[in-house]
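Running log. JK asked me to keep both predictions on one page so they can be read side by side. First protein, sequence followed by its tokens:
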Amino acid sequence: MMTGSFIVLEGIDGCGSTTAAKVLGSQLQSHGVKVHITNEPTDGPAGALIRLALKKRVTLAPKAIALLFAADRLDHLNRPGTGILALLEQDYIVVSDRYKLSSYAYQSTEPGIELAWIKEINRQAREPDLTILMDLPPKQALERKVSQQTAEGMELYEYQEKQEAVRQCFLSSTKELIDKGHKAITIDAGKPMNEVHEEVLKLVTATLEA
């Protein structure tokens, strides 16, 4: 169980992936596992610019944002000493809140951007050992988000109409991963959060022990 493994949690905004990643990390650490919790966009240079764009503090073309995500992802993977690949070599379990499927789902639903192009610019990014899609209807996700912040302060992609298209892309992309032989699972993120967290732990534990 102590060999490196790359786990990714995906889903629309409000699905609970950020909290689930933190809880998973704590659960694994309590069993003596070396864990590194991370997320995308990262805190690197490209990630910092992405965050400014998502918060509408700078204006960038959608294709430029997509390229920044791809660049941030490659930096996330290959950063010397602290990148995902380096940590996997040190037998860490790396858990990332968001990865390639988020780019597929969000950028490909922008006008004028094709999913095939998004896949091409992310072609060099390593596939996870396990992808867990936390599926949640956009209406429920939006209710969660509104309870935390006002609509005025919500990020660029956090609107119900957009989220429905994003959700469908997440679902189809996860199925495609499965069809290609990668380990990917969709779970119901609308259940009580403690049940969701336990399900995530069981799936990850089964992957690590396989």
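And the second, directly underneath as requested:
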Amino acid sequence: MADADDIWMKNKLEVSLQYFQYHPETEFIYGDLTTIDENNTVISTNFYKNSILLSLANKICPYPMAVTSSILFSTKPLKELLKI
């Protein structure tokens, strides 16, 4: 999943697909985000670590929360959802 204003690192997809290949039991992968301004100047490299809202949500929720633009998922959960 990627929003229109998202930019992935050049090897994000390759690294993620390799991880899925070597760990077929994995259903979701997500990572931290680097935020940049309109000039591509880095504002923060630890979006999750520095996010008070996500930090509080992760203390309350029984599963980790992630922003959708950082998530890749295998087809297994999608196939399960399509059955419903």
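Observation for JK regarding the second prediction: Residues 2 and 69 are 5 Å apart (CA to CA).
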